[in-house]
Design a protein that fits this description.
Shape: elongated
CATH topology: TIM Barrel
CATH architecture: Alpha-Beta Barrel
Bound molecules: erythose-4-phosphate
Radius of gyration: 21 Å
Largest sheet: 8 strands, parallel, barrel
Strand content: 15-25%
Strand order of the largest sheet: 1-2-3-4-5-6-7-8
Order of helices and strands: EHEHHEHEHEHEHHEHEHH
Distance between the termini: 38 Å
Number of strands: 8
Number of helices: 11
Structural class: alpha/beta
Length: about 220
């Protein structure tokens, strides 16, 4: 399973990228608005920093506008994926952009039917927002389950990108269903790494080694 980071924060991106944990990045206008910097410069820097796919979202809601923005965003780097909203004209833009060899990520997907249409249009990634569905009392993960089956049935090359992830349990559920990608807020990735028993266990090992060194001062392995 690929892990993308769902943020426009360069410090967080660099931190997890340096650890080798990041396969790609997703951004959106809300995430970019949280950064105290020119959004276009932030997008360009993210594209330069991360080798994997970086989703950059268009703001137009008509075909011509989406095409113009999509082509401009694609020039930021070879790893750019143009994020297109799941609206009627968006599907036309996805078809055209993918015909031009530009990768697309269809965002704001909330139903299996929307996901099916996005995959059929030629999207590289289909992004169901599971947390926002959960917030409404629906079961977001059901959309993932249905889409995994649908994409498999027809051999669509689109990858399911599980978005609006709120906690590590969402990641486990998505992985069990065979989703291709999860995009995670940095705090969720942080929570996946740590476990209190790991910290307790490590502290004990280090403490016991210190005791062993006191009894055998010639030990050279570590301080
Ligand atoms: C994905 O591409 C979106 O940027 C993101 O996952 C939205 O998540 P939210 O519902 O937490 O805003």
């Amino acid at each position: 399973m690929k892990i993308f980071l769902d943020t426009a924060n360069l410090d967080q991106i660099k931190k997890y990228n340096d650890l080798g944990l990041v396969d790609g990045i997703t951004t959106n206008p809300t995430l970019l608005s949280k950064e105290n910097a020119d959004p276009q410069e932030v997008m360009a820097e993210i594209v330069r920093t991360v080798k994997g796919p970086v989703s950059l979202e268009v703001l137009s809601t008509n075909y011509e506008g989406m095409m113009e923005e999509g082509r401009t965003l694609a020039k930021y780097g070879k790893n750019v994926v143009v994020k297109i909203p799941m609206i009627a004209e968006g599907m036309k833009a996805v078809k055209q952009l993918s015909g031009e060899g530009i990768k697309t990520n269809v965002t704001l997907v909330f139903s299996p039917n929307q996901g099916l249409l996005a995959a059929k249009a030629g999207a590289s990634y289909v992004s169901p927002f599971i947390g926002r569905l959960d917030d409404l009392g629906e079961i977001g993960m059901d959309v993932i389950r249905d889409l995994v089956q649908i994409l498999k049935n027809y051999d669509y090359p689109a990858e399911i990108l599980v978005a609006s992830v709120r906690h590590p349990l969402h990641v486990i559920e998505a992985a069990k269903l065979g989703a291709h990608v999860v995009t995670l807020p940095p705090d969720v990735l942080g929570k996946m790494i740590t476990h209190p028993l790991t910290d307790i266990g490590l502290a004990r090992f280090l403490d016991d080694w210190k005791k062993a060194k006191q009894s055998h001062p010639k030990i050279t392995l570590t301080r």
